[in-house]
Amino acid sequence: MGRSRRQNNEFAAPAFDVFLEASPDALLALDEDGAILIANASASRLFGYSRDELIGSNHWMLLSEGFRNETDLLHARLVAQPDEPQPPREVYGRHRDGTEFAAEIAGSLLDDVGSPVLLLSVRSTAHRTGPDADLNEAMSLLAATLESTADGILVISSEGKIAGLNEQFLTMWSIPPELMKAASDEPAMRVILGQVKDPESFLARVMDLTKDADAESHDTIDFLDGRTFERYSRPQKVGDRIVGRVWSFRDVTPRRMAQEQAEQALADLAAQAEQLRAMAFKDPLTGLANRAVFNAELVRALKEPRLKSVDVLLLDLDDFKEVNDILGHQAGDDMLVEVSRRLRGCLPNADVVARLGGDEFVVLLTACPDVEAIAECIVRCLHVPFSIEGTVLRPSLSMGLASIGKDARGASELLREADVAMYAAKAAGKNRFLRFHPDMMTALVRRTDLEAGLQLAIARGEISVDFQPIVSPRMGRVVEFEALARWNRENHRVPPAVFIPLAERSGLINEIGTEVMAQSLQHLASWLSEDPSRSLSMNVSGVQLQELDFAENVLRLAETSGVGAYQLVMEVTESVFFDADCNVIKQLSRLRAAGARVALDDFGTGYSSLGRLQDLPVDIVKIDKTFVSMVRTGAERLPILSSMINMAHSLGLTVTAEGIETEEQANYLIALECDSLQGYLFSHPEPADRFEHALKNAGESLDVLASRSGPS
Ligand code: C2E
Ligand code: CA
Ligand code: CA
To answer: How far apart are the CA of 491 and the centre of ligand 2, in A?
Structure first.
């Protein structure tokens, strides 16, 4: 209700104006909005305002805060029960200077003066002393409390009439204040019921409590607009007498929402934890268990006293790196998934089949009657070829088996034994399983010892070079020598197949390679200088090609020995081309640009196909001895050999066949127009001091071949 300064000249002052003015009570006439139309002299005196200030102002300024709806209630009463006398209402008035004082108000309605007017008489009750004053004090406190609480409060008398309410009640229920002034409470009830989700039960509760005057209740009410109220109801008593019922409503929507949010957050957290747990125990690629699960299960199995056997199978795929490098990571992943599928198929009763990472798997078997049969079955089953995007792959694996026997062992020891056995299986030629044997530990110790020895080998002068001649049947003479590293360790030879991989792993291969090259150039320089068509072939590892100055070092070494770069051949295996590094290609290109040639060693043993050959920066292919060894009588048809040679020739490459041991093999390859031959038939690799011997042997073998093939 705003201030409406309305001049009311049109208001016809009654004749008893004088009485009004002389009244000891403050008299006020209010319009519908609560604005003061008339105020007498007592009113000015009581409230401390001049008459001009009073006229047109809202009467609320004359009441203490908690009592401002008292006039509304009084008005509602007068409308509802026009014929009944209404007792004066106890209020607190407010003086202009801010002081508050106890007062009572009485009212009557004038509705024959145009618009309805509420006539109020106000009398200070400050003169009352004792319990009365205390009561008033308490009343005012109560009323003030009622208005300042956040709860909406409604008091219904035992006769079913509204005995009191606060502003908050009206706001919370969006009830227009004039509805409360109406004669019936039906319109207000309609507003209330229109908002709640379940009007029937709302009403039922009201009815129940109306019947049972003594009852207390507490429930919650859901609103259509999503709000939630708590509803409390208790009897209103004066002494022991029940005079009505107090309803109080509290908006708990924010609390409920916070609770719901907290519950949702908890549910989300639980779901996430579940997901994390699943992830923590599962290998995401293959769906197999992971290392953590395996370890936990192994420890558990070893603690189980009734278990007679606990077996651990450790598997590692053979040459998996090549699949990844050559065919790409997707193919690698496909292979791992296929391998896991087969493993699970072979092991329906395994306790755990887990992937440890990379291409390593592990199996735990307890109470398994024949673990070796199962191991054999896995090796066989895994070796069945399958195709990925048109390329046929034949997975193979090396597997170590370790078991607890009479003397119990710990989990880590068992795993270590399986690991040692697995390495032994690899060393024994892969695609197999081996059961752990204590001797294998000795082998492990030997390997470590070997590595330490290799570190000192060059400094101790233990590295030397053997030379093996390569002949040209067309020219009828030795055209090339391949340099092969040798390690003479304390009067016994460590085979290159053992120390070269060791050197590659430790990086020592760089020094060894340089040493081999230096010795080779030193020994062969004069032989090479006699005939520019002669050449020296050297093996180069992928590790060496990672060096940024590899090509420059080779060329510098050759130059200092007076050997032309065009007389050098670098033998590399095809795997060097698939290590992501572009430096490899750069180094080889630099060497080729200087005139050196590149030979693809061990051709046919990798995963590459003949078709890939044309993309590689090579000049020579060396057909691996496994293909040559397929020639036995010389009468067999071996299309693989002829197509390799034809393919290479059609790409402008020359072909060397390795591992020629028999005349039949030599003749077979000569017939296929293989350019060069190498093998024990001509000469074993020989040390430098037997160089002439090697040359002589090779020459003699060539002569024999020529005489036999002759003009027949
Ligand atoms: P590779 O490059 O394929 O060398 C040919 C291997 O075949 C040599 O084994 C040689 O002795 C052997 N061989 C030659 N003719 C015959 C034959 O008629 N029958 C049979 N069965 N074998 C024959 P070796 O000397 O044991 O070398 C093994 C491997 O070690 C070499 O294979 C090569 O990959 C590597 N290697 C040797 N020296 C070096 C080196 O200086 N650097 C690098 N990176 N690798 C080397
Ligand atoms: Ca070679
Ligand atoms: Ca070879």
So the answer is: 25
- The reported pTM is 0.53
Give tens-digit pLDDT for 78-90: 888 888 888 888 8
Q: Are strands 597-603 and 620-623 parallel, antiparallel or unpaired?
A: parallel
pLDDT value of position 16: 67
Q: Please indicate whether residue 536, judged by its CB atom, sits closer than 6 Å to ligand 1.
A: no
Report pLDDT for 5.
Answer: 47
CA of 626 to the centre of ligand 3 (A): 10
Q: Is 188 in the pocket of ligand 1 (CB under 6 A)?
A: no
Above 70 in pLDDT, residue 1?
A: no
Atom of ligand 1 nearest to the CA of 503: 44
What is the residue type of 592? R
Q: Alpha carbon of 149 to those of 93, 156, 246: distances in Å?
A: 21, 18, 14
User: Whose Cα sits closest to atom 30 in ligand 1?
Assistant: 496
Whether 705 contacts 666, CB under 8 Å: yes
Q: Closest Cα to atom 23, ligand 1: which residue?
A: 659
Tokens of 418: 């399986």
Residue 686, ligand 1, Cβ within 6 A: no
Q: Is the CB of 544 under 6 A from ligand 1?
A: no
Residue 308, pLDDT > 80, answer: no
The label of the residue with tokens 């390997």 reads 447
Contacts of 316 (CB under 8 A, 6+ apart): 359, 360, 361, 397, 398, 399, 422, 426
Confidence of residue 712 (pLDDT cuts 50, 70, 90): very low
N-terminal to C-terminal alpha carbon distance within the chain: 133
Residue 641 CB–ligand 1 contact under 6 Å: no
Beta strands in 129-201 (DSSP E): 152-157, 162-165
- Report all structural domains of the chain as residue ranges with CATH numbers, in order of start: 8-127 (3.30.450.20), 139-255 (3.30.450.20), 280-436 (3.30.70.270), 451-709 (3.20.20.450)
Alpha carbons within 13 A on the beta-carbon side of 679: 24
What is the reported pLDDT for 281? 79
**Ligand 1 pocket member 395 (CB < 6 A):** no
Q: How many helices (H) and strands (E) does the chain have?
A: 25, 27
